[in-house]
Design a protein that fits this description.
By secondary structure, chain A is mainly alpha-helical. Helices cover 70% and strands 1% of the residues of chain A. In chain A, strand 1 and strand 2 form a beta hairpin. Chain C has an 8-stranded mixed beta sheet with strand order 6-7-8-3-9-10-12-11, sandwiched between helices. Chain C has a 4-stranded antiparallel beta sheet with strand order 2-1-4-5. Chain C is globular, with a radius of gyration of 21 Å. The two termini of chain C are 37 Å apart. The chains are: A mainly alpha, B mainly alpha, C alpha/beta.
């Protein structure tokens, strides 16, 4: 199926259209962040401004339309600039780890034999520690910070793409047109890139779309656990960690501080939902039997 | 089947070696002073040393990496992972204390997760493109998008904050007092099981009540995962020739679905069980932290927050070893379910 | 034949409602099967021969398929009017079916014995032990060596021919009156094909059942059939007994099929096949549906659909020009030569 056809169908499908619209919304927020929520200090826009030093969250008001969370951090500002953080983490991590996975998987499948065996065992080793645990350990070693979070996520997330790519390449490798290209004397490099990758890329794109959501979830989980973004950094996960001490509300009104949890929680969930909706629709289009 | 299982066992040492290398190379990324902490069994060892450089020399932290690895792995084999600052105990003891809580939570999650996921997936496939299917599919994609820590906090907010039904922790305070009393024998550290063994059913009920919220939080995510795989496998299986044969025999539709289709559809589900166990184990870090369950996951999170390097590294190694064994078990059970492998 | 009919199919229409449009897979088919005979149904893939058989079993997937009109009279009842529950008592019991792919038609996770026993228990209401004894007996009857041992084996441990024998054993385990065989030998080696056909002939005689043999292979038809219905584009185009069909085919399509069988006794320098392919069921031509490929098509053939009429005693044909074909045959001319038309 051609790209144009796939995109046309993605736009025709109500579910994926909904996902695309949410993503567009987030993109607009991210791009226009400096106008939507102008930073106090232009040099450090990712630092959430504080409305004071009191620890107790303040409900939405005229100045802070989503209210303030623990330590008077502006929730609205955090959400807006947190969108940029989410895109940055998602795009960088998924982009680089997919690239690594594609290369590793292709090499393993194309050369096979001993090289394949070694690569797949290394993949197994990286996969034998749960993703979240591995990233916690690595970020602890590397030290707090968004950059280190991304390094840790990339280090432990390339394996699933590698496995997928390997199985795709193995099946395409037997195809007649690849055999024909070999017979025509095409050199290794050209065969790999021109034929195999172009014909195996769709499943990888579906997986990448799904991983956009899960990488952002994992990054925010790290921040939530206090090992990700440094304090005050515009990051959705950290905003939820600020909410942790307040979810039981006050005597007589257990929902008193709902906004500290629900607003950033909704931002993360919608962000991930939109990528998963697109990934789902994408898969249905390319593999109608699973519909 | 013998060769299939033998292959799994032969690969085991390779994987174990790889995991220790992986952890060790992360240790080596630390400076010698920080690395020191992973070798100290007890803070008392630090006494008597003039300065830290002496300790670096004493523990050979400037030696070539392979010598250090040899010494380190020697300690690991003996269960010696250093002193955990965050737990105030040697890492092995800290983990041993917390292990039963994690096992209890994992065991109680596994059955609802697997059963619920499979049932939802089968229902969805059998009602393909009908209303129930659409509802289940929406549930799947939303459930998969909901971060556990957001969902868990919402559960806590509503079912504890508002309704007061499902408190965090593993037991109520009165129950802890019973458990700590001399009349109560702690056989396993799994409170539900210990309650049964001590014939104290108030403990059992209280422990179960505390398990509901964390199990529910874990389930939402993994239901979504299992039901999607079950559904697509069921749909594919229902189109197979042998299903048509079963219909041609005159079998009733529910026998066709539950006897002939489900078993075949579940074989591929078992292959992702390993992946699920890994994800579920990782999810325990979040759930134990949110619901204040003193288990391995909470230990990891605390250790990481307090930069307790021996705690984090030791915890990861324990996690790794444990899960490698579980995955071995999954592989073997896969061989038993599928006659094509069993009779190989 | 004046005997009582076992099955009578009248004006059967089975349509599929797809996104692209309505597919008239079976569009007004009539035939009957007498006790103890084998009716062959022959045609190219997509002519609706399999859908007719699935319609008799009421196993047409719905949606998108639906039996639109017609009657299937079996044992005094119209099968198209029965509920699925009533049909289940007939399937595997009075009417059994075997399929083309023995490799995939058995459930890989149950032993062959389990799968036969299941049918026996369901329809004969006997104890499991007795059902097992009968299953072993059936395996022996279909010529499986060491049936006591084979009964506990899984399908993947058997060869394709053995699996088809198991399918036959399963189909015959409840003494059906009619066995529908949908291309039962297509997926098998030639030598195995002959063995399976011979087995079916033997079993037909000893069980006194009727067989509906669906195939694209006239060789198979010649081997086992008593009477033959030739199908093209959802309709029966020629209907007669097997000897007449081979001696005196009256439809140009049948003629074409005959000529595409290589003959050992004649020295042919080329195989004559029918040029072109079956028209898409979404886009059937006006008039006679064969007119896109028929070398004799002219005038009326492009405007009016011919009826299925008796050309001779017991010989029906759906063609406007079968008499002209007769003359061509008498002159010893060919109508298909290099795809050219010799009018």
């Amino acid at each position: 199926m051609e790209w144009q056809e796939v995109i046309k169908r993605l736009l025709q499908n109500k579910v994926s259209l909904f996902g695309i619209l949410i993503i567009l919304f987030f993109i607009i927020v991210a791009v226009f962040a400096p106008y939507i929520a102008p930073p106090r200090d232009a040099d450090e826009p990712y630092l959430i401004p504080r409305g004071g030093w009191s620890i107790q969250p303040q409900p939405p008001n005229e100045e802070y339309i989503f209210g303030t969370t623990e330590g008077q951090y502006d929730i609205f500002y955090g959400i807006v600039w947190g969108t940029r953080t989410a895109f940055r983490i998602g795009l960088v991590v998924v982009g680089i780890s997919s690239f690594i996975g594609i290369s590793v998987g292709t090499i393993a499948a194309y050369y096979g034999g001993f090289i394949d065996e070694i690569i797949m065992r290394i993949t197994d080793i990286f996969m034998s520690i749960p993703f979240i645990i591995a990233t916690i350990v690595f970020v602890t070693i590397l030290g707090q910070g968004i950059g280190n979070v991304m390094i840790a996520l990339i280090t432990f997330s390339w394996m699933s793409t590698a496995r997928l790519m390997r199985s795709q390449v193995l099946s395409v490798k037997e195809d007649e047109f690849v055999q024909a290209a070999v017979a025509l004397g095409a050199n290794d490099f050209r065969i790999i890139f021109k034929h195999i990758i172009l014909n195996t890329i769709f499943p990888v794109v579906i997986q990448a779309s799904m991983r956009m959501g899960s990488m952002v979830i994992t990054a925010s989980t790290l921040s939530f656990l206090g090992v990700g973004a440094p304090e005050g950094y515009a990051d959705w996960g950290q905003m939820i960690s600020f909410a942790r001490n307040w979810i039981l509300g006050v005597e007589g009104n257990p929902l008193n501080y709902w906004y500290t949890l629900v607003i950033p929680g909704a931002a993360i969930t919608l962000f991930c939902l939109s990528w998963n909706l697109i990934g789902d629709a994408f898969r249905d289009i390319l593999d109608p039997k699973l519909n | 089947m013998i060769s299939y299982i033998a292959r799994r066992f032969l690969i085991l040492p390779v994987i174990l070696f790889g995991v220790t290398m992986l952890i060790f190379s992360m240790i080596m990324m630390l400076g010698p002073y920080q690395r020191l902490s992973t070798y100290i069994k007890d803070p008392a060892q630090l006494k008597g040393a003039e300065d830290i450089d002496q300790l670096v020399e004493k523990f050979g932290l400037d030696d070539p990496w392979y010598e250090q690895y040899g010494r380190w792995i020697g300690g690991v084999v003996k269960g010696d992972f250093g002193w955990s600052e965050s737990a105030g105990a040697p890492v092995t003891k800290a983990i041993a204390d917390r292990f039963p809580a994690t096992i209890e939570l994992a065991l109680f999650s596994l059955i609802p997760v697997i059963l619920g996921g499979i049932i939802l997936g089968v229902l969805s496939a059998v009602n393909h493109n009908k209303t129930l299917d659409h509802i289940i599919r929406i549930f799947a994609v939303v459930g998969w998008s909901f971060p556990s820590f957001v969902f868990g906090l919402l559960v806590l907010m509503i079912f504890y904050g508002v309704l007061g039904w499902l408190p965090p922790g593993r037991l109520s305070n009165w129950a802890y007092e019973i458990i700590r009393s001399t009349d109560f024998v702690s056989y396993t550290g799994l409170y539900v099981l210990d309650g049964i063994l001590n014939l104290n059913f108030k403990i059992v009920v209280d422990a179960l009540r505390h398990l509901i919220a964390p199990v529910f939080t874990i389930s939402i995510l993994w239901w979504a995962f299992i039901l999607r795989i079950t559904r697509s496998n069921m749909l594919e299986t229902l189109k197979k020739d042998y299903i048509r044969t079963a219909r041609a025999k005159g079998l009733a539709e529910n026998i066709i679905v539950y006897k002939h289709a489900v078993r075949n559809a579940l074989i591929p589900v078992v292959t992702v069980a390993g992946q699920m166990v890994l994800g579920l184990a990782g999810g325990l870090v979040i759930v134990e932290t949110i619901f204040n369950i003193r288990g391995l996951g909470q230990f990891m999170a605390n250790a990481a927050q307090q930069l307790d390097y021996p705690g984090v590294l030791g915890g990861a190694l324990y996690y790794g070893f444990f899960l490698i064994l579980i995955n071995l078990f999954v592989d073997v059970s896969y061989a038993v379910i599928d006659p094509r492998i069993r009779l190989e | 034949m004046s005997e009582e009919k076992l099955v009578e199919v009248k004006n059967l229409k089975t349509y599929f409602y797809t996104e692209e449009g309505v597919v008239k897979a079976v569009d007004g088919v009539d035939y009957e099967i007498y006790p103890g005979e084998t009716l062959g149904i022959v045609g190219e893939s997509g002519c609706g021969k399999s859908v007719t058989s699935l319609s008799i079993m009421r196993l047409v997937e719905s949606p998108p398929g639906r039996i639109e009109a017609g009657e299937i009279i079996f044992g005094g009842k119209d099968l198209t009017k029965l509920s699925q529950k009533e049909m289940r008592k007939i399937r595997g019991n009075d009417i059994s079916m075997i399929f083309q792919e023995p490799m995939t038609s058995l459930n890989p996770v149950y032993t062959v014995g389990d799968q036969i026993i299941e049918a026996i228990i369901l329809h004969k209401k006997v104890k499991r032990k007795e059902a097992r004894r009968q299953a072993v007996e059936m395996l022996e009857k279909v010529g499986i060596p060491l049936p006591e041992q084979r009964v506990d084996e899984y399908p993947h441990q058997l060869s394709g021919g053995m699996r088809q024998r198991v399918m036959i054993a399963m189909a015959l385990s409840c003494d059906p009156k009619l066995l529908i065989a949908d291309e039962p030998t297509t997926a098998l080696d030639v030598t195995i094909q002959a063995q399976i056909l011979e087995l079916m002939n033997d079993l037909k005689a000893s069980y006194g059942m009727s067989i509906m043999m669906i195939t694209h292979d006239l060789g198979v038809i010649a081997e086992v059939s008593d009477r033959v219905a030739v199908m093209y584009a959802g309709k029966v185009v020629e209907y007669t007994d097997v000897d007449t069909l081979f001696e005196d085919p009256k439809h140009p399509y049948t003629w074409g099929l005959m000529n595409s069988i290589p003959k050992l006794d004649k020295d042919v320098d080329r195989l004559e096949a029918i040029p072109g392919s079956v028209p898409s069921p979404l886009n059937f031509p006006e008039g006679c549906k064969f007119n896109t490929r028929c070398p004799l098509a002219e005038g009326k053939c492009f405007t009016d659909e011919p009826p299925l009429e008796a050309a001779a005693e017991g010989h029906k044909v759906r063609c406007w020009r079968y008499e002209d074909l007769e003359k061509i045959k008498l002159r010893g001319e060919r109508i298909y030569a290099d795809g050219g038309v010799d009018k």
